[in-house]
Amino acid sequence: MPTTPEPGRRPHTGRRRNEAARQAILAATRRLLAENAPGRPVTVDAIAKEAGIGKQTIYRWWPSKGAVLLEALTSLARDEVRTPDTGVLESDLAAFLGDIFRAGTAPDNAAVLRTLAAEAARDAQVAELLLGFTRTRRGALRTLLERARERGEVAPGTDLDLLVDQAFGVYWFRFLSGLAPLTPAVARELARTLALGAR
Amino acid sequence: MPTTPEPGRRPHTGRRRNEAARQAILAATRRLLAENAPGRPVTVDAIAKEAGIGKQTIYRWWPSKGAVLLEALTSLARDEVRTPDTGVLESDLAAFLGDIFRAGTAPDNAAVLRTLAAEAARDAQVAELLLGFTRTRRGALRTLLERARERGEVAPGTDLDLLVDQAFGVYWFRFLSGLAPLTPAVARELARTLALGAR
Amino acid sequence: MPTTPEPGRRPHTGRRRNEAARQAILAATRRLLAENAPGRPVTVDAIAKEAGIGKQTIYRWWPSKGAVLLEALTSLARDEVRTPDTGVLESDLAAFLGDIFRAGTAPDNAAVLRTLAAEAARDAQVAELLLGFTRTRRGALRTLLERARERGEVAPGTDLDLLVDQAFGVYWFRFLSGLAPLTPAVARELARTLALGAR
Amino acid sequence: MPTTPEPGRRPHTGRRRNEAARQAILAATRRLLAENAPGRPVTVDAIAKEAGIGKQTIYRWWPSKGAVLLEALTSLARDEVRTPDTGVLESDLAAFLGDIFRAGTAPDNAAVLRTLAAEAARDAQVAELLLGFTRTRRGALRTLLERARERGEVAPGTDLDLLVDQAFGVYWFRFLSGLAPLTPAVARELARTLALGAR
DNA sequence: TCATAAACGAGACGGTACGTCCGGTCTTCTT
DNA sequence: AAGAAGACCGGACGTACCGTCTCGTTTATGA
C-alpha cells in the first residue's frame, strides 16, 4: 500500500491526486489478472489502456509494475482477517486458516505472487510491501496462539513464531507451487496438527 | 571483480561436445548468482560472456535460461540428502531438517537460491524446475514419515503431505523472507513439534 | 547556473491579466533558449518553472509552445529593420544586409535563433510563426528592390522574389550551418552580386 | 495501404549485419514518409513494424530516429549530381540547379528535412551527416564555377563560396519554407542571375 | 587422405515489455 | 476571474533481455 503522500508543508494547491484514477488502475489490474488470457498479458501498457489512463499516472503512484500488482492483490484479499475466539485453540486455528486459505484460493493469485516475488527480489520497496502484507496476518495468528497459551493449551517454552511459520509456510508454499490444495479440509487438518504440536 | 576464466584456454573438441564448455557455463552461472551484483544481472548474455562461450552453446545443452540456473543450483547442492533411520521419528526429523537447514544456510547456496527463487518468480519454467529440485528432498522426508507410520508413531489418517509441507514451508518461508533464522535449534524444535503433531 | 527570477516576488493581480507574468514567461524562454544547455531543455514545464508561473498561464496567452518561442524571439529582435534609400541599389542592399547580418550575429540572438530553428523543424506551427517573423524583413527587402526597379536599376522581368530569397537564403544557410561567416564584408559582396544580377 | 514487405522472406545472415534488414528499414521509412498519412505517423515503432524488424535493429545501425530519416532521404535523392560542362556558365548552372530542384521537389521531402533539422540540432552526429549530404553537391557547384572562372566568365576576386551559398540558400530556404516554388523556370532564372552576378 | 559433419565463439535478429519524457488539458486552491 | 501548482491522457522514445539464426573456424569421423 503506497504511503499516501503526506500533505506537504504548504497547503496543497494544484490538482489533487485522482482517487478514481487510482481505483481504475487497480480495478483494471485485477481484471487482467483474473482473465489471465494468453493474448492479454498483464503489461503496464495493457493496464493503462484497460484503465483508460496514461502510463505515467501509474508510475506516479507506484514505483514499479510489481508494486501495482501487489496492491491489486492486497485489495483483492482485503477481506478482514478474523481473530476468532472460541476458547479452543484448534477451533480458532481452523477458522483462521480457513479464512486465509479461502482468500488465497482465488484462481489467479499464484501468477500475481510469482511476479511479485520477482519484483521483491530486485526492488526492496516491493519486498517491504510484500512483508507488510503478511505481517498483519502473522500478527493475528500470533495473538490467537498467545491467548491459547494463557489458557494453558500451549506447552510452556513452545516457540510460537515457529508455529506461525509452519502455518504460513504451508500456505505460501502450496499457494506458490500449486502442488497441493488449500481446501477447508486441509485447514482443519492443519489446525489439528498445529494444536497437537503446541501441547 | 569476476573471476574471469582464463580466456582461450579451453581447447576445441571439434565435432564432439565440449564438456569443458558445459562446466564453464555452470561455473559462470554460479558465479553470477552468488554475486547478485546490481550491475551484473544474471542474463543469458552475461552468462555467455562470463563463461567465454556463445549463447547458442547454452541453448544447445539446455532448453531455457531457467534450466541452466537450476542445474547450476543442483550441482551446487549435490550433497546427498540423508534419510536417517534412528528408529525414533523425532530424531530422524531433527537430523534431516538439520541437514536441509545447513545446506540452505551455507553462504554460497543461500545467494544462489535466493536469486533462483526470484528468477522462478518471473519464469514459470524455472519455477517448475525448482519444484523438481525440491521433489527429491520432499520424497526423502515423506519416506521418513512413512517408516514412522509403520512403526506406529504416526496416528492413522494423518496427512503426511501436510507434515512435509509444514517442514518445507517453514524452510522456504524463513529462507526467502529472512524474517527468522534457520538454526540447528530451530530444526530440533520443529522436529519436536512435527513429531507431536503426527501423533 | 540559471538566473532564477526571484521567486514569489511578482504579486498576484487577482482577476486582471498580469502583464508581469507575461513578461516573466518571455524572459524565461529567452534565458532557456540562450542557454541551450543539455540538462535544461526548452520544454513548457521548464519555461513555467523558470518563470515561476503555472503552465496554464502560458496556454492562456499563447496557443502553443511554438508561439511562445516565436514571441520571445520577436521581442528580442524588435530592433526595426531599416529600409535605407540612398538612391543606389547596391548601397541600399549593403546597408540592409549589414543590419540583418549584425542582428543575426549578436551572440544572444544567435543562440535563440538556432534553438528556435530546431524547434521549428519539429513543430510545423513554430515553422509557420518563424516564417511570419521573416515576412516583415522580406517585405522590407522587396520594397527596396521595387524602388530600384522604378529607378531603372533592375532589368524588367527580373524575379524580385528570387533575389529576396537569394539574400535570405545565404543568411539562413550560413547562420544555421555555421559553415561560413556573416561579416560586413560578406554583406557588401552579396549586395554587389545581387545588384549585378538584377541588371 | 501499407505495402507490407513479404513477411519472413528475408533470410538471417547470422553474425554479419544483414544488409537486407537495413534496406528494409530504409524502404519502410521512405514508404511511411511518402504516405504521410495522419493515422500513420513516422514513428520508430511504425518503421520497425512496416519493415518487419525489431526496433533494436534500427538502433543497432543508426544512433537515433533522425539519422534513419536522413539516410532514407539521402538514398531517396541519391540520383547522381551531374556536373554539366556546356562551356557556358549560365547553361551549366541551369542544368545543375534544375537537377537539384527536381530532386528536392519530391512531394514529401519537406517533412523529412524538418524532422532532420530538429535531430541535427540536438544530435551532432546527425548534423554532421546532414552537412556531409550537402557537401557533395556544394563541391559540384563550386567545381562548375571554377571552370567558368578559368574560362574568364567570372570576374576575378569574386567570392565563389558566396555564389554557391546563394544557390543553395535559395534551394534550402524555399525547400523548407515551401513559400515559393522550385520549378525549372526558377532554376533557369536563378542561373541567369548568378551568371550575371558573377561577372 | 581428405571431404564432411558437428560443435563452437560471436553476435545480429525479431519480438515484447519496460520506464521516461513532453505537449496540451483539466482541476484545485489562493489571491 | 486570473493565477500558481501540478495531476492527467496520449503517444513516442530508447533500452533490456529472451531465444533463434547464421557465419566462419576447428576438429573428429568415414569414405
Give a quick summary of the entry.
The structure is a homotetramer of 199-residue chains. Chain A has 199 residues and is mainly alpha-helical. The first copy, chain A, has helices at residues 19-35, 44-51, 55-61, 65-76, 89-104, 109-122, 124-150, 160-177, 184-198.
* CATH class membership of the largest domain in chain A: Mainly Alpha
- What is the strand tally of chain A? 0
Number of domains of chain A: 2
Which blocks of ≥5 consecutive residues of chain A have pLDDT under 50?
Answer: 1-9
What is the level-2 CATH architecture name of the largest domain in chain A? Orthogonal Bundle
Tell me which protein chains meet in the greatest interface and how many residues each side has. A-B, 39 and 39 residues
Quaternary assembly: homotetramer
Order of helices and strands of chain A: HHHHHHHHH
Q: Bin the helical content of chain A.
A: 55-70%
Beta-strand percentage range of chain A: under 5%
- Tally of individual helices of chain A: 9
Give the integer mean of the pLDDT values of chain A: 82
Output the CATH homologous superfamily of the largest domain in chain A: Tetracycline Repressor, domain 2
Can you characterise this structure?
The structure is a homotetramer of 199-residue chains. Helices cover 67% and strands 0% of the residues of chain A. Chain A has 199 residues and is mostly helical. Chain A folds into 2 domains: 19-74, Arc Repressor Mutant, subunit A, CATH 1.10.10; 80-198, Tetracycline Repressor, domain 2. In chain A, helix 4 (65-76) packs parallel to helix 7 (124-150), helix 6 (109-122) crosses helix 7 (124-150) and helix 7 (124-150) packs across helix 8. The longest helix of chain A has 27 residues, at 124-150. Chains in contact: A-B, C-D. Chains A and B meet through helix 6, helix 8 and helix 9 of A and helix 6, helix 7, helix 8 and helix 9 of B. Chain A binds a DNA duplex (31 and 31 nucleotides) through residues 10-18, 21, 41, 43-45, 48, 52-57, 59-60, 64-65.
